[in-house]
Amino acid sequence: MGELSKYLDSDLALVLGVVIGLLSIPSILSAMTDGRAPRASAVTILIAGLLIIFAIQTHPGGYSIGDVPNAFVVVVARFMP
User: Which residues span the membrane (predicted)?
Assistant: First the structure.
């Protein structure tokens, strides 16, 4: 996990995990209404969960629910000019 944390900090991992998780919900619903197995959605949920777990483990003291909006602001501010 040391190599990954060099390129991916905990705030970015948390934001990516939440966004990927939220974006996979319509795919799950679409697959279930069509009667298909949501295989691709399951993979994206797994990736989102792993990113969130990575973020919680690498952030000193972990995250609380109140820290999530602050993480979004920090990550968005990092990429805004």
Answer: 12-32, 39-56
CA dist 44 → 25, 64, 76 (Å): 10, 23, 22
What is the domain partition of the chain in residue ranges? Answer: 2-79
* Cα separation, 79 vs 76, whole angstroms: 5
Instruction: Cite the DSSP H helix spans in the chain.
Output: 2-7, 10-34, 39-58, 67-79
